[in-house]
């Protein structure tokens, strides 16, 4: 059989290093923190010998894989996007996905977001945790274990890096040797690692030479890439709002050893009926018994009509942070509104930008929709190579309205110059071409002055004028400007 080989692939906008061996159906192995592809060095040959193509990447921010400098590029969406991109780069349609620790979290998120890509999942140490609509994982950990729990301690950039870099070898000895099943916390006056006893020898399952591979690698790369995963827990929780309380149909095996961190808490959930509700094809073992690996248009008249002012518009709150208007937030608003109204499924009818939110709801949460009616905008699948802004620029040039409205304040000034005139132009424009800004003019200045359309009464028009005088246009512009470039 061939030896383990290495190569680098372009995956989801980053260069990803992978180790691979064998031929056959694809098995992906995802490491945890602080890990590397090397964490799977013993398993790769065994699985390959059984007739599989085994691939273990250094994940985003680790080892020889690229580590984006922007700390916000480590959300669940980015990490699952890496898995999706890797599967595509390897030319496969479906895979067996196995993850340990943080790799298990990415495995579960892939099972929730893209179950179509998975034959089965196996997770080690970390079981399934459905998204809580009220508390993020970090919030739960703080509520259970206090403000000094390791996840909270590692939020501050540089703090955990200093703790790990003080003595990298001892840091690994502590993490790999500690047998306490309690969650790591930092006592008053000490760091997380300082609170763990020191060790002279590694545990029996790893040699000094093997340990040195980790020490040498993290001396070169540092720990920031891996720690950024922790620093995006809350951001990921916000972005995952569309999948609140969503489980996965993917066949799954959860393996949590009785000395793993949080074992008792995990066992209570995975041995309860809730686990079978969330993961109906899931099995759980604590590692002490035998392990069996599982490979395996109705239309009715709606009775209750709800029309929201969407995020950033009208009387609905408009977050100041422009990054809070991505498609995940907008779909999350629909999901949460549906839940808040006590409905299980809904009919959605929408116009203009509303269809974009509706179509993405249909893609992300089809289980919530009885039917969908969109006006003016049809479905456009995500292009893996070009965002919508880039597509529009390629088709129409740099002066196309979507690109013109990217700069904060520019579109606002254009609309606020004459709000009534701006609305009349927008509602009366009859051209079939897309809006453009002529040289030396803004988008609205380029549009001809028109009479108010017959369908728009003066008193109705005034409602819009008064609303936008009070709220401004930034919320709506942020929706256009921010979410259309988000990929997953």
UniProtKB/TrEMBL annotation:
Keyword flag rRNA-binding: no
Top-level taxon in the UniProt lineage: Eukaryota
InterPro entries assigned: AB_hydrolase_1, AB_hydrolase_fold, Epox_hydrolase-like
One Pfam family this sequence matches: Abhydrolase_1
GO molecular function: hydrolase activity
Family: Belongs to the AB hydrolase superfamily. Epoxide hydrolase family.
Keywords tagged on the record: Hydrolase
Protein name from the UniProt record: AB hydrolase-1 domain-containing protein
Domain AB hydrolase-1, residue spans: 25-261, 302-409
Listed PANTHER family: EPOXIDE HYDROLASE (PTHR43329)
Organism field: Riccia sorocarpa
